[in-house]
Specification:
Radius of gyration of chain B: 17 Å
Shape of chain B: globular
Strand content of chain B: 25-35%
Number of helices of chain A: 15
Number of strands of chain B: 10
Order of helices and strands of chain B: EEEHEEHEHHHHHEHEHEEHH
Largest sheet of chain A: 2 strands, antiparallel
Distance between the termini of chain B: 37 Å
Bound molecules: adenosine-5'-diphosphate, magnesium ion
Distance between the termini of chain A: 25 Å
Oligomer: heterodimer
Radius of gyration of chain A: 21 Å
Structural class of chain B: alpha/beta
Helix content of chain A: over 70%
Helix content of chain B: 25-40%
């Protein structure tokens, strides 16, 4: 009996899975990082990369609370906007943009605690509704604080900006950091607690999971990353306006990205952001509202057929390719496979 | 010696619905105490108050003399009480091992989880065999074993079991009671809520009877087994 536990993998899922996933992410990241070297003058491509990575980073950030813990927030624009304005004001005060991003993240994270400590006590649906209110209230407040935010005319920012390559690479770095954070949380004790509380809050509490604390940690972690993204976005546009950076559309985008990609999965927001931005970029210019219909259809398809979104589809395809049988049980939070032999037993 | 657990005059309600009036009892270190009563008597509510899932309206709960009724649930687990909930409340889509890991979630229990896991696996060898399996694919008996094992992962001083034999075949009921005896023999004090009154009283040191939110009878297990009122109401004699 002794030392039985020593050989046990405490890590969730198949032991090779996190490592394979990390290697795939690393390879993809390196490949993408080489793009500016190959096509340094392709502004369209670099801009496409910039926006996609920015959405990848934010989708991953949103998913920590929204996907792992199941607390769906429609208010992340508040973090994005606060980050954007923090960078804007510091940049105007003479800071180099890069130095402002951590501050943007901290401001957003601090605000997330102010919002989260009271609202994360609510059960899921009530929390979601509260976040809509908070997001909209922030937008209106910022519109009216025109001394600081420029109000309805926005703020023009310095015109000396870094190169497109710099933006592309920094955005990619943000996505990489967000991926590392999301993957680490999912495999950690914190992630296990978040998934446990999503499925049974009271059982988690009664075993010693400090659910209120972990929900707030997840929320502020997400807010930090989204705030930093807001800062980077402000630098890129050289302009901030409350209606854009605090917009409800921004909040909804993050929810859509995670849902399309796969709630609570690590790769989901990556795939989701790519599809989301591709659809938006191609359709919005030619048919201004058509993309909304496409998202609607995608959402319905996901809810009906594959709750784990594109990541779930990809996993299924991967299994089929390897000739493995389809899962016996619905996908667990762990991704652990049910052991086939000896089911049933004493019952 | 002071009792390990003292429940003193607790009252509790769900919104406007009063569930407990003036419940007092105690559990000595090393004992198995059983809380008996019909459906809806307030047994689960009493346990929820003790484990911090429900705030009492009044009264006190003390563990080793220290009041705990104002602590949040995780702190109560840390102080040494764990509740095996009615209906098991496992995470069906997590593996056996993940469920056990959640039982050792507190930093103190986490530090010792490897040893504790060996102990739990020695009590429940079947869980060791099925450790990679999803909890939802276990049989009913195995699920109950997992629920108990998960609770033990916190190394409790007091183990509270809420109807552990619920929905199990008679042979498995006996197995569950045997396990409870074994756990108790290893030094864990037990508070047991059961519908199987006879078996509970055969296992327990002492018992209390709860009726519509009030304690109406108490005594040693032998006394309660002989009590004509209990024979009539709970033992069908
Ligand atoms: N969540 C709840 N909301 C409202 N009333 C409840 C709830 N849980 C239990 N009750 C009521 O409290 C009383 C005691 O219930 P409970 O403690 O579950 O009894 P027991 O465990 O002895 O069967 C019952 O009248 C029951 O209807
Ligand atoms: Mg009950």
């Amino acid at each position: 009996m002794r030392a039985l536990s020593a050989r046990l993998p405490w890590a969730r899922g198949a032991p090779w899975a996190p490592r394979a996933s990390a290697l795939a992410a690393l390879a993809l990241g390196i490949l993408l990082a080489l793009v500016p070297a190959v096509a340094p003058r392709d502004i369209t491509l670099l801009n496409l990369g910039f926006f996609t990575f920015l959405y990848v980073a934010q989708g991953l950030a949103w998913n920590v609370l929204g996907g792992y813990a199941g607390y769906v927030s429609f208010g992340y624009a508040a973090f994005f906007g606060l980050g954007a304005y923090t960078t804007a004001l510091l940049w105007l005060a003479g800071w180099p943009p890069l130095a402002t991003y951590p501050v943007a993240g901290i401001v957003a994270a601090a605000f997330s605690l102010i919002v989260g400590v009271p609202t994360l006590r609510l059960v899921g649906p009530y929390f979601s509704i509260a976040t809509i209110g908070v997001g909209e209230a922030m937008r209106v407040l910022m519109l009216n604080l025109d001394r600081i935010t420029g109000g309805a005319s926005g703020l023009n920012l310095p015109t000396a900006v870094p190169s497109k390559t710099w933006f592309y690479t920094t955005s990619l770095l943000f996505a990489a950091v967000a991926f590392a954070v999301a993957a680490w949380v999912r495999g950690s004790r914190v992630g296990l607690g978040l998934m446990a509380l999503r499925m049974d809050l009271e059982a988690a509490e009664s075993l010693g999971v400090r659910t209120a604390l972990f929900k707030n940690v997840a929320h502020s972690l997400g807010a930090f990353l989204v705030g930093a993204c807001g800062g980077l976005y402000a630098t890129f546009l050289q302009y901030v306006h409350p209606d854009t950076v605090f917009s409800f559309t921004e909040s909804i985008s993050l929810v859509l990205i995670a849902l399309i990609g796969g709630l609570g999965t690590v790769w989901g927001p990556v795939l989701g952001a790519v599809v989301f931005y591709a659809v938006q970029d191609y359709l919005q210019t030619s048919y201004p509202t058509f993309h909304l219909l496409v998202y609607g259809v995608l959402l319905i398809l996901i809810l009906l057929f594959e709750p784990k979104g594109l990541a779930g589809l990809a996993e299924r395809a991967w299994r089929r390719m390897r000739g493995a049988p389809a899962r016996l049980a619905p996908a667990g939070p762990s991704g652990a496979e049910p052991a086939a032999p000896g089911r049933g037993g004493a019952g | 010696m002071a009792p390990l657990l003292e429940v003193e005059k607790i009252a509790a309600a769900y919104g406007e619905v009063r569930a407990l009036w003036d419940v007092s009892f105690s559990v000595q270190t090393g004992e198995i105490v059983t809380l008996l009563g019909a459906n809806g008597a307030g047994k689960t509510t009493t346990m929820r108050v003790i484990s911090g899932l429900l705030r009492p309206l009044g009264g006190e709960v003390r563990l080793g003399g220290r009041p705990i009724h104002r602590l949040p649930a995780p702190r109560i687990v840390a102080s040494g009480i764990v509740q095996i909930p009615e209906g098991r409340r496992l995470w069906p889509r997590m593996s056996v091992l993940e469920n056990l890991e959640l039982g050792a979630y507190l930093p103190e229990s986490r530090a010792r989880r490897a040893q504790t896991l060996d102990w739990v696996f020695s009590l429940f060898p079947r869980l060791a065999e099925r450790r990679a399996q999803l909890a939802g694919t276990l049989s009913g008996g195995e699920q109950q074993m997992l629920a108990i094992g998960r609770g033990l992962m916190s190394r409790p001083r007091l183990l509270m079991l809420d109807e552990p034999s619920l929905g199990l075949a008679p042979i498995l009921v006996r197995e569950v009671f045997e396990i409870v005896r074994k756990i108790n023999a290893e030094g864990v004090t037990v508070l047991l809520v059961e519908q199987n009154v006879r078996q509970a009283l055969e296992l327990a040191t002492r018992g209390y009877v709860l009726e519509t939110g009030r304690i109406t009878r108490s005594g040693t297990a032998a006394e309660l087994l002989q009590d004509p009122e209990i024979k009539r109401a709970y033992l069908g004699m």
